[in-house]
Amino acid sequence: MKRFHDFIIVGSGASGSVLAHFLTQAGADVLMLEAGKRFSADTFPANEMDANAQLMWNGGMDASTDAGTLFIRGKVVGGGTIINQCLLDRFDDVALDDWRTASGIPYFRSSEMTRHYDAVESHLSLHYMEKSDWNRNAELYVQGFEKLALEWAPLRRGQKDCGEGNDCIVCLGGCPRKSKQSMLETFLPKAEKQGLQILSEFEVAEVVHGSSFVTVQGKLKGQPQTLHARKVILAAGALGTTQLLLKAGMEKRLPALGQYFHCHPQWMTVGLFDEIVDSHKGAFQSVKSSDPRFRQWGFKLENVFAGPIAMSLLKPGYGFEHQRFMKQYRNMACIEVAVRDQEAGQLRINNKGRLQIHKPLSDGDRQRADRGNQVVHDIFGALGAREIMTSPLRIALHLMGGCGIGTDERRSVVNEGFQVHGMPHLYIADSSIFPNAPGINPSLSVMALAHRASEIMLADAGVRVTKSTRSRKQEQKA
Ligand SMILES: Cc1cc2nc3c(=O)[nH]c(=O)nc-3n(C[C@H](O)[C@H](O)[C@H](O)COP(=O)(O)OP(=O)(O)OC[C@H]3O[C@@H](n4cnc5c(N)ncnc54)[C@H](O)[C@@H]3O)c2cc1C
């Protein structure tokens, strides 16, 4: 195994894969380390239970210190993009203006970001969910919105030729149709063709910044390994990247490390109907709220559903009452409220070296959630639901912050060039750099930022990009 590289990327999700593509396209020698296993469309786990166990950190059961929120994150080649719903939105001016204010970084504006969004979107097949895609849950959602004179819009999803009988709830455990535009179907195969080497089941334990290169230590399938690179990029996600730096005791040098953690907490509400809704069939997410008042009030609504295991976790209680509720799985309609959380949480390491996620719900965020949930109750009430249940358990899928980007070293961990403050060979370009919660699906912006980061990193590293380097490599392979 080659032990010294131009770049080592830790993590293969939305950020790591985009970086890998643009760096290898330029001729750089890149190694990617991913803690999770590698699956393909043919080998993804066959059911919800196995998907949770095999594709997620801690079986999808990372909880906040107050046990009120469950954090779900991918542990697999392709990261969160393997288990996510691939709803891809650009940030609006509200989000970018807030980022510019919080970070002091001038390029957070649409005129600067557009070219990065364009660059990554050109590699993705994007589809607006049409009326012909709707299942009954989506129809009920739209009927409810129209009864209450609320504005809605179709969701934009990364998918390609889903075909008749789209059964996309299954692809939350990895898309078996090669349709969902995960990193495994888009950026990673291109990067591999350009020379990227991926080591899966390599969990990085430590990163040591030296004067002219960075050392990475970890275990490949349980075997200790030490590798080096001129530049190391942490793309292990908000929890993974922050944890690595906290474990290295870097909070003494980086006072903002672990701070400003956000997660768009979500509440799911089920409306039980006399009719069969079958929310799990067909395209299980097609429409969202677009009412400008909701943006102002700090929440959004999406039509959504989940597999039986997840739905049973959301319903409190046990025994006959729980069974009575779950037996009506086919009669459930469901709407989610996702809050643009204003109050930041904190990531810490406890004395056993374990990550602790401190994210209590502030009064303000509780009020935003209550307002959104009231709208959902009004919708289901207007549609004649015979029972309405809002889950008290909060779900967090958009994990952001912990290593914020900014110009002020007391309030941020990386500078506008994605370098960790004071460590010129160590970069971060994943969702951990978010300075606050945008209130918008984050992954497309993670990819767009990774594109910008790749340009800066190539220039910093002085990798001469280079058709000649690339063709030399191709010649060597041939
Ligand atoms: C169920 C679900 C649905 C979602 N739906 C959407 C959606 O529809 N639209 C949207 O925009 N966003 C969605 N998201 C969020 C989106 O997937 C994330 O924002 C995005 O993947 C973050 O990208 P990232 O590169 O920062 O991290 P990730 O994609 O999480 O990748 C990080 C990778 O690093 C690896 N890693 C971590 N620690 C280590 C280590 N020590 N050593 C080696 N490897 C390590 C992890 O295993 C992982 O593969 C969803 C998330 C989930 C869980």
Tell me what you see in this structure.
The protein is α/β, with parallel strands linked by helices and 478 residues long. It has helices spanning 14-25, 48-55, 80-83, 93-103, 110-121, 136-147, 187-193, 237-247, 292-297, 308-314, 319-326, 363-383, 443-461, 467-477; strands spanning 4-10, 30-34, 62-63, 69-71, 126-128, 152-154, 156-158, 197-200, 202-209, 214-220, 223-234, 266-272, 287-289, 299-303, 332-339, 346-349, 355-358, 387-390, 394-396, 419-420, 423-428. Strands 1, 2, 8, 9, 10, 11, 20 and 21 form an 8-stranded mixed beta sheet that branches. The chain has a 4-stranded antiparallel beta sheet with strand order 14-15-12-18. 52% of the residues are buried. The model is unreliable at 465-478 (pLDDT under 50). The protein binds flavin-adenine dinucleotide. Residues 10-16, 33-36, 72-76, 79-81, 83-87, 172, 203-204, 235-237, 240, 244, 397-398, 430-431, 441-444, 446 line the site of flavin-adenine dinucleotide. Flavin-adenine dinucleotide (FAD) is lined by residues 10-16, 33-36, 72-76, 79-81, 83-87, 172, 203-204, 235-237, 240, 244, 397-398, 430-431, 441-444, 446.
Instruction: Give me the oligomer status.
Output: single chain
Estimate the mean pLDDT confidence.
94
Structural class based on helices, strands and sheet pairing: alpha/beta
Bound molecules: flavin-adenine dinucleotide
Count of DSSP E strands?
Answer: 21
> Helix count, per DSSP?
14
- Tell me the CATH topology of the largest domain: FAD/NAD(P)-binding domain
